[in-house]
Write a structure and sequence with these properties.
Alpha-Beta Plaits; Beta-Lactamase; 13 helices; 5-stranded antiparallel β-sheet; alpha+beta; Arc Repressor Mutant, subunit A; elongated
Length: 379
């Protein structure tokens, strides 16, 4: 087992803070890989080599000289019952000789803590890679299976994607460790081991949960993640997929949910199957959406369309009541009537006609959603 020199240097620096002697870290071949005396790094130390080979502490002084060694004590470091390194402390034996057991135990504790941190980090990276693979339609099946086996995750279970999205927040610009720790704590407490922090969203694949448990999970996510990002978090859920090759569909559905709910100004948790217009408008190919909008508004200037949009939305909000719509816009009802007439004349679609109204409603909604999507992509 090779100890990363950065870990070794961190250990010797921590030990010197406590013991105030120069501390040296050696590999099992007696090469100094880290030290509080940087001039000695890379040198060979015969006493450390013998300590590693014999598994016993080696003392060095004038009566017991060793090649490359200075007075002090050299102690083998055990990890999983094997010698993985040697830790040395430089100084007169009458001062440092009694510290051998102390530096041995402290080094083992620090080494174990570092290795556990590395293990957690590696698992975090592997889990993130697996989750990202599962969001893709075309993926490396071999890598997906290898990661799931290493992580001991059963991909045979039906799962749905759950996306957490904070409007206007780029997660990649925040403290990733804090975000991951929050997400990890919540997900593992609900037996949901497949989760990752994306550049703009939290990605979770969950197995079937009872409705009460799912509600608790969603509340925990909204509260915990909201505190972590300093903003409200929308949650969108896709349909349950029975096979990992289909998980990406649920992820796409969940993304559609959070985008639509953000666009519509909705809050809370929403499922894909609960959407209405959100099932249709986001699914339109961009070219087709633009063609439809251009067809309805026939080359009208953007400022003019915005003006008509305000009128149309007020008319819709008040269920076709010209009087109440006019009051909201602080205009006379005759002025409201004239503006609706102008909308009908310039588009060819009369908002007061049951046949024409849905066309106008769709055109305004598609136009606004396309603008929302463009702004999202630019953030």
């Amino acid at each position: 087992m090779n100890i990363d020199p950065r870990i070794a240097q961190n250990i010797v620096d921590n030990l010197k803070d406590v013991l105030h002697y120069d501390i040296n870290f050696f590999d099992t071949k007696g090469i100094m890989t880290a030290s509080t005396d940087s001039s000695r790094i890379g040198t060979y130390h015969d006493a450390a080599c013998k300590a590693a080979g014999s598994g016993v502490t080696i003392m060095v002084d004038q009566d017991r000289p060793y090649q490359g060694a200075r007075d002090g004590v050299n102690v083998p470091v055990l990890f999983n019952d094997s010698v993985v390194a040697v830790i040395g402390i430089t100084g007169p034996l009458d001062e440092v000789g009694s510290l051998g057991r102390i530096i041995e135990k402290m080094t083992e504790i620090l080494l174990r803590a570092n290795m556990e941190q590395i293990t957690r980090f590696n698992r975090r990276i592997m889990t993130g890679n697996l989750v990202n693979l599962l969001t893709m339609e075309h993926k490396d099946d071999g890598l997906m299976e290898a990661l799931s086996m290493t992580l001991d995750v059963d991909l045979a279970r039906p799962r749905s994607a759950l996306i957490g999205f904070a409007p206007g927040v780029r997660l990649e610009r925040l403290d990733q460790d804090n975000l991951y720790d929050r997400l990890c704590s919540i997900c593992l407490s609900f037996d949901a081991p497949l989760f990752a922090v994306g550049p703009r969203d939290f990605r979770i694949f969950i197995h079937d949960l009872p409705s009460g448990t799912l509600k608790e999970f969603a509340q925990a996510l909204q509260t915990g993640l909201g505190e972590a990002v300093g903003s409200d978090v929308l949650l969108g859920m896709g349909r349950v997929m029975s096979h990992p090759q289909e998980y990406w569909r649920s992820y796409d559905q969940a993304c559609t949910v959070v985008h639509w709910t953000c666009f519509a100004g909705m809050t809370g948790v929403h499922r894909y199957d609960d959407l209405d217009g959100g099932l249709i408008i986001p699914a339109l190919p961009p070219a087709l959406a633009e063609e439809f909008v251009q067809h309805v508004f026939a080359g009208m200037k953007e400022e003019r369309i915005d003006w008509f949009a305000e009128i149309f939305h007020a008319y819709t909000k008040h269920n076709g009541s010209i009087t109440h719509a006019a009051q909201e816009l602080f205009i006379h009802k005759n002025t409201m009537q004239n503006r609706l007439d102008a909308l009908a004349k310039e588009t060819g679609y009369n908002p007061r006609s049951l046949k024409d109204y849905p066309v106008l409603e769709a055109a305004f909604a598609i136009r606004e959603y396309r603008a929302f999507e463009r702004n999202m992509n630019q953030e």
